[in-house]
Design brief:
4-stranded mixed beta sheet; alpha+beta; about 15% helix; two-stranded antiparallel sheet; about 100 residues
């Protein structure tokens, strides 16, 4: 077997940081003419994220974040921007993310 050219040798493998997560969202609230198999006439309130839970592979502790955990919840209970930023920060730390 030939040796890799100088400088092209792969670095030693590190263990991947794997995050498992699940999100919960609100339903879309809208106007329809009926109860079943209807087209939505107008959306009154679009969906938004309510919470997410996650854990690192190899750890038992499951962490959860939900809208009421954030100061903006009292002012606007549908503002999920801080929650989404925290989920993005988790994704940014992980090498691999696995959704439920």
């Amino acid at each position: 077997m030939r040796a890799a050219p100088k400088g092209l040798k792969a670095p030693p493998l590190k263990e991947a940081k794997i995050a498992f997560f699940d999100i919960e969202t609100s339903p879309i609230m809208g106007w329809t003419w009926g109860m079943y198999e209807q087209n939505v006439i107008d959306i009154k309130v679009p969906w938004h994220m309510l919470s997410f839970a996650w854990k690192w592979q190899g750890q038992k502790k499951i962490r959860t974040y939900a809208l009421p955990d954030y100061p903006s919840y009292k002012k606007n209970p549908e503002d999920d921007s801080a929650l989404v930023k925290d989920l993005w920060a988790l994704f940014d730390q992980a090498d691999i993310v696995i959704a439920h």
